[in-house]
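User: quick one, fold this
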Amino acid sequence: MRVAIIGTGYVGLVSGACFSEFGFQVTCVDKNADKIRALSKGNIPIFEPGLEELVAKNTTQERLFFTQDLTSAVETADVVFIAVGTPTQHDTGNADLSYVFEAARELAPALKGFTVIVTKSTVPVGTTRKVQETIREAAPQADFDMASNPEFLREGTAIADFMRPDRIVVGVESTRAQEMMRTLYAHLAQHHVPVVFTNFETSELSKYASNTFLAMKIAFINQMADVAEACGADIQHVSRIMGLDARIGTAFLQPGPGFGGSCFPKDTRALAAFAHTHQVPVSLIDMIDASNEARKKAMADKIIAACDCSVRGKKLAILGLTFKSNTDDMRESSSLVILPLLQKAGARLTAFDPKVQATSYPQLQGVEVALDIPSACHGAEAIVILTEWEIFRSLPFESLKEIVQERRLIDLRNLYTPDSVAHAGFRYVSLGRPTH
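Assistant:
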């Protein structure tokens, strides 16, 4: 089976590499000539553990190819995935589908023989049908069927998520398309991965519903952390007790500085906007995004309060800039809100992140870049952990004591226990736990 994937962003590139690992011949298409040249040479534009090695292996074994030539990729393909970006329209909150429909119009004339066209991009309910209409208008004689196949990949663990998923969701309306998609995922089905076949609308809504629910869990536990602080409870224990209930589960119940990335904020807003368009009240969903944005601003206030209520003229060491660990993704990262607010309050900031340079982002102008943890912390009046990188779980407290101005650790990921930090000789502020 031959597979074409239009779009070499995060979803398209990971999907292409993994499908080629299954043994299919995969051609990834992108209009960006520099990107295609780089990928053909094995230069991966994003950081995702294991991806570079997987691309190199399957390129060498001639199962994975990169091209700008959409026509040649589509006309020889049995399955064509549309995996282009669907960014948020800032004025409405809706997903911008212009790239999806552009891809549909461009692939239509290249279709030869029966082909399954799959929407892999995260799209609002009804998009797959509109893509079908777009292709039919552009190529009335084309022999094709549609499918919806949302991705459920987590940045930092995307390869494992693709290779060992919780489930595969496929929206189809024809036997031919269903059998083609069944063949595509036969490897996973043989390993007892549930493959759920449903209609287009259910498939599309399942992605938004899943991400929005997970975002809600994060927003909920963040608010519970505030309640815990107010009443003297320990949110880590509360979270564990909740998670032991099988109906709730432990995932996404760790407090933090607010969720970010390319999925949760965008998908939550898009689902709310879609519901409003259809005059469906979704007050619970509306509050998730508002709560999360307020959380980021509240974390800046928390840092200031922990620094004796003023950061003016004080140097703060910021550890972590990405929205989560094991990625170089800065989209919707809490750091892009928190750091400018600290600068506005007069703080001098030095940041260290294993994968990101602060100077690459206009919002972080004036933030000094450090090459390692000691350089970031030298002379600091507070060390602030924003991202849960593994390297930050074992800070060299003994050596840091000698170079910081004030022994103060503000841990917005609860990577440490209060007792361990107090034993190391640092004042400790975390989320939802007593201050030490």
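User: anything notable?
Assistant: The mean pLDDT is 95.
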